[in-house]
């Protein structure tokens, strides 16, 4: 016990230079991120318009928020876009990684092709797919010029399926990154595991499903966090492709927040919407973090 107490000061001064160097980052995180979050939540209970002011009105902004049809459309679109984006990016990215992991020819070329869209900004991606999905000179026009006159494919101009047009662009851009993360995880698997599976006569799909994927759990968790963060803050693609249209059919929470804060000049409503976005993230992240790190701490 005495030896442990005597060692504590030594541990405190260990890596002192690194701890001093991290002070600016810690202060930035505390005062900018945590402070900004607290400031946003505080002013969401006010009737701030063009400029923030401490005139508290209780939960009125939240009541108005959930009574607004535009917010309901935004939440519905986020749920549809988020669930499908999460599933398809994981599945397609893993399948592509599994194919490239077979040591195919021109692997570097294929990997570059698949990853290239991620190097583009969301605005560029949105504009490219706005052109590709345009019925006058995009995919529909090309197919009809080949003889299929009845072919119809104009998701960005159909309020019922416009969110799926945005989903196509998101998958095109984000799947390459997921593929690279999965490929890195697959390359970290010991070759002896594959040899043992082949010796035991285990089919390849069972090896992936029951052995490889459970071993890649940290990779999947990292990928899920990256995809989820992009889903919650999706904005650029929507603005570039549809600007929220037709009407409000492709509205998303991030665009709702931006419009109310900078166009409608209603800071209180924008702060309330952004606080609800933060709350939705915390509802998912906090239980997961507790289970993940709690399980690791208890062995």
From TrEMBL:
Annotated ranges, domain ABC transmembrane type-1: 75-290
Location of the protein in the cell: Cell membrane
UniProt-listed GO biological process terms: transmembrane transport
TM ranges: 21-45, 78-100, 112-132, 161-186, 207-232, 271-291
Pfam families: BPD_transp_1
Protein's membrane topology: Multi-pass membrane protein
Keyword vocabulary terms for this entry: Cell membrane, Membrane, Transmembrane, Transmembrane helix, Transport
InterPro entries, alphabetized: ABC_transporter_permease, MetI-like, MetI-like_sf
Record-linked PROSITE patterns: ABC_TM1
GO terms under cellular component: plasma membrane
PANTHER family in the record: ABC TRANSPORTER PERMEASE PROTEIN
Family, similarity comment: Belongs to the binding-protein-dependent transport system permease family.
Name by which UniProt lists this protein: Sugar ABC transporter permease
Naturally occurring in which organism (per UniProt): Pseudaminobacter soli (ex Zhang et al. 2022)
């Amino acid at each position: 016990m005495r030896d442990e107490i005597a060692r504590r000061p030594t541990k405190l001064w260990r890596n002192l230079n690194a701890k001093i160097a991290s002070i600016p980052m810690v202060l930035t995180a505390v005062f900018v991120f945590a402070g900004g979050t607290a400031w946003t939540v505080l002013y969401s209970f006010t009737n701030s318009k063009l400029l923030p002011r401490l005139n508290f009105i209780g939960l009125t902004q939240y009541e108005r928020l959930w009574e607004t049809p535009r917010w309901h459309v935004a939440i519905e679109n986020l749920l549809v876009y988020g669930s499908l984006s999460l599933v398809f990016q994981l599945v397609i990215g893993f399948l592509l990684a599994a194919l490239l992991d077979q040591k195919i020819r021109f692997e570097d070329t294929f990997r570059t092709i698949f990853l290239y869209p991620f190097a583009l900004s969301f605005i560029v991606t949105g504009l490219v797919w706005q052109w590709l999905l345009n019925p006058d000179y995009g995919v529909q026009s090309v197919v009809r010029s080949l003889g299929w006159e009845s072919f119809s494919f104009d998701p960005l101009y159909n309020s019922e399926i416009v969110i799926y047009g945005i989903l196509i662009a998101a998958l095109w851009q984000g799947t390459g990154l997921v593929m690279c993360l999965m490929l890195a995880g697959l390359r970290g698997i010991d070759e002896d595991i594959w040899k043992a599976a082949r010796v035991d006569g285990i089919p390849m799909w069972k090896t992936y499903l029951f052995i490889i994927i459970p071993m890649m759990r940290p990779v999947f968790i990292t990928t899920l966090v990256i995809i989820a963060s992009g889903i919650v803050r999706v904005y650029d693609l929507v603005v570039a492709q549809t600007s929220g249209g037709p009407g409000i059919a492709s509205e998303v929470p991030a665009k709702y927040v931006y419009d109310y804060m900078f166009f409608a000049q209603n800071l209180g409503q924008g702060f309330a919407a952004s606080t609800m976005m933060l709350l939705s993230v915390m509802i998912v992240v906090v239980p997961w973090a507790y289970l993940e790190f709690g399980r690791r701490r208890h062995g």
